[in-house]
Design a protein that fits this description.
By secondary structure, the chain is α/β, with parallel strands linked by helices. It has ten helices and five strands; from the N terminus they run αβαβαααβαβααβαα. The chain has one domain (3-183): Rossmann fold (3-Layer(aba) Sandwich), CATH 3.40.50.300. It has helices at 3-11, 27-38, 45-53, 57-64, 66-82, 101-108, 118-125, 139-157, 169-182, 194-199, and strands at 16-21, 42-44, 88-90, 109-115, 160-163. Bound molecules: shikimate-3-phosphate. The site of shikimate-3-phosphate (S3P) has 10 residues, from loops.
Length: 207
């Protein structure tokens, strides 16, 4: 393989859509919705790790420590990179921070960063007990600190950036689909169900 060839294949993208972003940015919910719209299977890497380990993320943090969890994330990323069937994956909020994960994430496919402000995260996750990093006296300060640290890593990995805070879930999905179209993705046309037509006030029927 020539040097040029090797270089190209090194950076060639995998077939997946990868959702990244801070905790509470809506990766799982958006991933589920896009799974329907793109007719692709959706997987959440936190759930993949929980299934493998047979315990929750909080239990993994408590019994094995954050370092072990971060290693598990890297291993799951390698599996995703080697999976050649195009799917949608949402990654844990901390996954893009580890330097060695960044080229791996980019190799997995097209990366979409769901950007959100600290205040919006705080509102969405108030009372949540499943995120070990936010179980502290002042979660808002912690969220601000982490977002400031992580923002550059998210931006570095992203092909698409969508601000999620002030728009609806449907609008976020539409914005992502629009960006994917621009990148040459073939987006299936899906007829609205009767229920969706009612929800949007569109009462048109077939002629
Ligand atoms: C984490 C985010 C969580 C989960 C773990 C650590 C982080 O995933 O991986 O609690 O470091 O931001 P979500 O982003 O899906 O909540």
């Amino acid at each position: 393989m020539s040097k040029k060839h090797r270089k190209n294949s090194e950076y060639s993208k995998g077939p997946h859509l990868i959702l990244i972003g801070f905790m509470g940015s809506g990766k799982t919910s958006i991933g589920r919705g896009l799974s329907y719209k793109l007719r692709r299977a959706f997987h959440d890497t936190d759930r993949m790790i929980e299934e493998k380990e047979g315990m929750s993320i909080s239990e993994i943090f408590a019994s094995k420590g954050e370092g072990a969890f971060r290693q598990m994330e890297t291993e799951v990323l390698r599996e995703i990179r080697d999976d050649r069937i195009g799917r949608i994956y949402s990654l844990g909020g901390g996954t893009p921070v580890r330097m060695e994960n960044q080229p791996l994430i980019k190799k997995c496919g097209t990366v979409c960063y769901l950007r959100i402000t600290a205040e919006e995260v705080y509102e969405r996750l108030k009372g949540d007990t499943t995120r070990p990093l936010l179980q502290c006296d002042d979660p808002l300060s912690k969220i601000k600190e982490l977002i400031a640290k992580r923002g550059p890593a998210y931006e570095r990995c992203a092909d698409i950036v969508v601000d999620t805070g002030s728009i609806s879930r449907d609008q976020v999905m539409e914005a992502i689909l629009e960006e994917l179209r621009k990148l040459g993705w073939d987006i299936p046309v899906i007829e609205k169900t009767e229920k969706e037509n009612e929800d949007t006030g569109d009462q048109r029927t077939e002629p």
